[in-house]
Amino acid sequence: MSRNTSMSFLLLSGLGLLAAACGGDDKNAQTGQPQAVQCPPGQIYDGRLCQTVGAPGATTAAPATAAPATTAAPATTAPATIPGIATTASGPSAQPLDPTAAQAATQLIAPLGTQHAPAGAKPVGSAIAGNFQTGQTLEAQVQMNPGKCYTVVGVGLPPVANLDISLVPALPIPGLPAATMAADNTVASTAIVGDKPNCFKWAWPMSGMVKVIMTVSQGSGVAAAQVFEK
Q1: How much is the pTM?
Q2: Local structure of residue 93 (DSSP, 8 states)
Q3: In whole angstroms, what separates CA 48 from the centre of its chain?
């Protein structure tokens, strides 16, 4: 082999080794695609370099905020009512008067009692009297007894234009409005409950307390009432 041939063989061999070192089947050879960046634990890759989570400049997700809780309005309940039963609600109180101070009204009660109460009926206690403004009421309690019947007679002096009288239990059922047991249904300065021959009969087997409620719904002035029992 000549010297030139030997030199050519050595040159070709060197080029072959150099090509093998730069290519071949090396798994780490570049393929033209970007390689995935693996950051140390606790760091994230922001597209340029690895950064520690929470460090200045690092991108972090905004904390979620809970919607404010809503509080339901408390439920309100309407007062209980009983269908078909009349109820009575007292208004502002009138000024009570001694029967002697309302003598002009009380002296009219006796003839009205003779006219509207059953024969032989007797007054129960003293008269109820007061000085009323429109819409004001006056209450008094009377005991009613088994087997007895009752008539209430009331009269108002001018300018009283309408006097109303009703009877309700003195001890109503808790939570319920006072049920009207009997009432005057006329529009006049006089009021009669239990007009003869149909007086108000106490049907319970024992005595009980009843409220007599006087109301001046039209006009104002002095009014009085008396309960009669037979």
Answers
A1: 0.61
A2: B
A3: 64
